[in-house]
Amino acid sequence: MSSFIRYRPEIDGLRALSVLAVFIFHIDSGMLEGGFLGVDVFFVISGFLITSIILRSVEQGRFTLGGFWIRRIKRLYPALFANLFFVVIAGNYVLMNPERSDLFGQSIAAVFSFSNIFLYLTTGNYWSNSSESIALLHTWSLSLEEQFYIVFPLLVLLLYKLSRKAILPFFIVLAFVSFGVSIYQTPLDQSAAFYLLPARMWELLVGSVVAMVGPATLVRILGSRLASLASLGGLCLIVASFCVISYNDYFPGYRAAIPCLGAALVLAFGTADPVGKAILGIAPVNYIGRISYSLYLWHWPIIVFSRFLSPDPNVVWVVLLTFASAALSYHFVETPFRTGTRRHLVVVGVAPLFLAGFALPLALKTSSPGVPDHLREFEDHYVIDTEFEIDATESILESGEGVGSHTHEGEVDILIVGDSHAEALVRAIYQYAEENALSLENLAVPGVSITDDGPKPNRSYAGELNEMRLQRLSSIKARVGILAEAWVWDVGRENFDVVLSNYIKLLSQNCDEVHVLSQVPMVDLPKTHEKALNKYALALSRSGQDLSFEGSSHISEINETVRGRVEKLGLPNVGFIDIYPYLKTEEGGVLVVHDEGVLYSDYYHVNDRGAERLLNELLESRFEAALSE
């Protein structure tokens, strides 16, 4: 077993590299597509350091669980509480609902170290549309580490009493098991694999295993020259992963092994690498490494707040404010409390009560204090809700049928097929059907395109569901069929022409009349506000600009491609409806706000009001004509 290495400059350099990669990625993911992997590198470093500390204390016979956890609390929680106070109080005036009203629950989850679980249950996906507006999203990784700090020392103590020789083999096996869970779970439930400890523990254990074997032992085994090359190669692996691996890939899975292996090589052999030590040991880099925890805490809330305050945040000011906040936190919160007395510990213990005292009254407010009256609708559940009540996913997978007011004889008046763009129309059409005593079946499923033929992240059932959907379409009869999709994601796929033709032919055979809808206009948001339409509207207003929204020009071309495919089939009972013009302004922008209110829930979905507009302007007359025959 190794003893604890008191200080290695290259470790601070590695911390700096990790946190800067994450920072750059969050400012602009296009600048460093794999920058989010800095968290994975940090996990390996944390596992290495915490194992070194525990093993040294255990071998010296002075390790206690209580003492260990108190040191972890003094190390992590003072800076976290200071950060939470700022985010919760300032966020109530900067953010808008639902992000503002969610702050209380998220802060409580961060305090009690289950933020990763809470975010998994409430957001479902780190990469989802709403996640980039969650000011405490970054606390997931802190909670995961803290959960590791609870489990790991218990296992070490138990094994140390049973068999010291079993410690290293046990954690090597456990690391491989956790890695296997990550590979297995990523395509089935990417969000669980990303957020939760079972699929992430191996990353911390990689660092733990390096600490258990000991860098000195590893360098001696490999030889100083090869060790130096291995460390430099590890550094190259880390940098390459930041540049090459994309967050659109199936992640974590096996891809996370690349930066983790790189970090392990640097930790194992860095003492023998003069080049790596020279690079990572530069004084300013080391300082960033020392303040890396505070830098990580402050960077994300400041980025999120800046995007609610301005449609074009000044990156220089964001960077300066982040580093200034991190430095103040390190020198006046982290350091004093880490080396402080029992009084400091009492303050840490009382802090959650003060936090709750401030946060709860603010959370109980129904509207955001900092949002102008004319933008209140952008935080209305009716406007921004994208969790559809009439979701056919479970019904199709369980029974092979959709949901709605369909008859038992397999015949319906209105049939709806497609992805979330079709489902966005369902509630308005469902209400129309009820008012006119019509039957309806919904086979639209969010996140599952008609072209999906296999599992996809967070939609492991996509291929199976499409097969069952086709079977249902083969057996059902309908008077009117509606097919709507986000064609922008479909048109470029190799199987698009064949799949679209097969769907339309099947609908044509089983429906008296079929309408293929164009895609709605997509709002062209700046990268800083990507996927957050309400946040962009608030930022525009705060900067004194008009609420105007430009559209993505290529959507018209995509729609024309789909129109061409539909018309080429020449089926007499199939038509293409271009809904695009009905959601455009006179100036050519996207009609996000109309006389009757907000029409979009996000940057490329209409809300219920938008769906009602399309129903009234385009679909109702067609329904009446077809259903009266």
Automatic annotation (TrEMBL):
GO terms for molecular function: acyltransferase activity, transferring groups other than amino-acyl groups; hydrolase activity, acting on ester bonds. InterPro entries: Acyl_transf_3_dom, Acyltransferase_3, SGNH, SGNH_hydro_sf. It is found in: Cell membrane. The chain crosses the membrane at residues 12-29, 35-55, 76-95, 107-127, 166-184, 204-222, 229-247, 253-272, 315-333, 345-364. The keyword Glycoprotein does not apply. GO terms for biological process: lipopolysaccharide biosynthetic process. Residues 9-330 form the Acyltransferase domain. GO terms for cellular component: plasma membrane. This is Acyltransferase. It comes from Pelagicoccus albus.
